[in-house]
Design goal:
Elements (H helix, E strand, L loop, with lengths): L1 H15 L21 E3 L4 E4 L1 H7 L9 E3 L17 H5 L4 E21 L3 E22 L2 E10 L2 E5 L11 E19 L6 E22 L9 E21 L4 E23 L7 E23 L1
Antiparallel strand pairs: 1-2, 2-3, 4-5, 4-12, 5-6, 6-8, 7-8, 8-9, 9-10, 10-11, 11-12
């Protein structure tokens, strides 16, 4: 009897107050609204205040509250992916970075000996060397600009010009070249929407080359004097290349690339005077390596701040 009386009283009150029995004690949009949205139980809609909507839900610029009849979900493109930081994704500001690279380089050039007595003789100069580089740069949207310094190990090559007369006859010659470069590079990252990003680019700058020519007497009579002569030169240098970058996370990328670099030329040895071979002949001569280039394969780690 008491339970029936309580139920009848509750039913009458909800009817008089205009609240349907099905909604008494229940909010239609409860649990459907995202954080920051307000549930309006009378209409069953989720409402986002204007001051929140412009910052948290798609940068909507409006002075009035935004009302959604369905649950509000922030646009997916506003959520940074695990491999792109927020400011990099939106392009809001430049992103500085530092990169370290190591490479294997096939150096090639044309070794040339010119003599007033023996004429001109040429040999190929080629050797594989290792390199290490450090770069500081900035990324703006899909572009990367950087300053890169690199140091190469010594490239060596035995040279036998086999001239019939003159200073080089009878000597076992070895040429050595060491290169250092300072380049200003520009790369374009091709957007793919994935962690793999192809890139192309190039750079210009300076190459400092140190060339050395060493000779020792290999004749039975040992009448020729061993020697070692070095020269240094700063040249204009340039490079082009392409590669592939893999994003480990928002701030770290692993880069793999190929580059073609042109270093210019360097002098190895020069002489003007009485022939040092002992013939008493006046001679003017010079040995140099021209068109020194390299094909490089490199791997590196790039960290964005």
């Amino acid at each position: 009897m008491k339970k029936s009386l309580l139920f009848s009283t509750f039913f009458c009150l909800t009817t008089v107050l205009g609240v349907p029995t099905a909604e008494a004690g229940y909010c239609a949009c409860a649990g459907r609204c995202v954080t920051g949205a307000v549930c309006n139980c009378s209409t069953g809609a989720c409402t986002i205040p204007a001051q929140q909507s412009r910052y948290a839900y798609g940068y909507v610029d409006t002075s009035a509250p935004v009302v959604y009849s369905q649950p509000v979900i922030a646009p997916s493109y506003q959520t940074p992916t695990p491999y792109r930081s927020h400011h990099e994704y939106t392009g809001a500001r430049p992103v500085p970075y530092i990169a370290a690279r190591v490479g294997v380089n096939m150096m090639e050039g044309d070794a040339e000996y010119r003599s007033s007595v023996d004429g001109t003789w040429k040999k190929d100069f080629d050797d594989s060397v290792f390199s290490g580089a450090l770069a500081f740069g900035v990324k703006i949207n899909s572009w990367r600009a950087e300053v890169e310094g690199a140091l190469y190990s010594k490239a060596e090559k035995e040279l036998d010009f086999s001239t019939p007369t003159g200073y080089h006859f009878g000597h076992d010659l070895k040429a050595r070249i060491q290169a250092k470069t300072l380049l200003f590079n520009l790369f374009y990252d091709i957007p793919t929407g994935t962690q793999l990003t192809p890139f192309i680019g190039g750079g210009v700058g300076f190459a400092h080359l140190k060339g050395t020519l060493e000779g020792k007497d290999e004749t039975p009579t040992s009448i020729l004097v061993p020697f070692s002569e070095s020269h240094s030169k700063a040249n204009f240098a340039w490079q082009i290349g392409a590669g592939l970058s893999y994003a480990l996370n928002r701030n770290t990328n692993v880069d793999f690339g190929y580059r073609y670099t042109n270093y210019g030329k360097v002098k190895l040895q020069s002489f003007e005077g009485i022939d040092r071979g002992g013939t008493g002949t006046y001679v003017k001569e010079k040995t140099e390596v021209k068109d020194l280039t390299s094909h490089s394969i490199s791997a590196g780690l790039r960290f964005s701040f």
